[in-house]
Design brief:
With about 290 residues, the protein is α+β, with helices and mostly antiparallel strands. It contains eleven helices and eight strands.
Amino acid sequence: MGSVADKIARKVATQIRSNVIDLSAFRASRERALEAGLDGSRFKDLVEQGYDPAFYAQGLTLVSMFAEAISAMPEAKAYAKAVAKAEDEYVPDGPPISPLTASYFNMWAFFDLQFGASRETMGTCILRVAETTGMPAWIADIVRPMQESRMGFYVHMGLDGPLVLLKDIVTGQVLRCHPVAGYLGEPGQLWYIRLLPPPVPDIGHHVAVTTPYVVLDGTEQRFLDYIAREVARMTAAGGRKAVDAEALLKFGPTANHWNEYIFLAYVNHQPDAIFLAGVPDIRESLPQA
């Protein structure tokens, strides 16, 4: 039978060979990516000119076009329904309409929201389609780091020129980061944010692709304690739930767990940052609860 991703990839491959169904959305995605210069050495040229955020922005445009075509397939019906429901509930347009920004929500919808018995994401489906249909390797090079990324809690460790030093509270790793939103923050702050690796290895800094959520009353230990409690609950629940911190931060114990946290923890905002308060499992600590 195969996974949902396998079924989608086989269907796309068959349709491409037979020309029975118009796959213009897939073809257009490849053509637009080429027009944007997302091929070969052009990656490195763009990054060296200081356009590393544009690299991932163009990549997300590519993913969006693939996702639109896949979402119309019966195999992705559960995915389309879940995204539509979340859009209705959280209205992800950024403050003051909603604390969920489009950049946060799109990354969640494409790379964290699981569907089907094999627990695929839109990202894993696109990677399987690219492999099965023989699309250029650079497509996977764009999609894979986004699929492997997750939101996380980071302690602000200071600045290195225009870059922010962020410490992942789970791994302990300190990363040099380019904040796309422009917010530099202050040492000691706890950020909830998604980092993507350097677009090319020798650039040496990560890219913070979402607007920082700054947890005003957040400390490293407070959130490490929360993560331990949540992982313990997931372990006790058993079944197919993953039981480590990485899986918790990426997928949550439920699909909308992190969406709900942001929604209930919202305090205030400014153009380049959004401020939260509270811990997900202490309801009385959440301002909007």
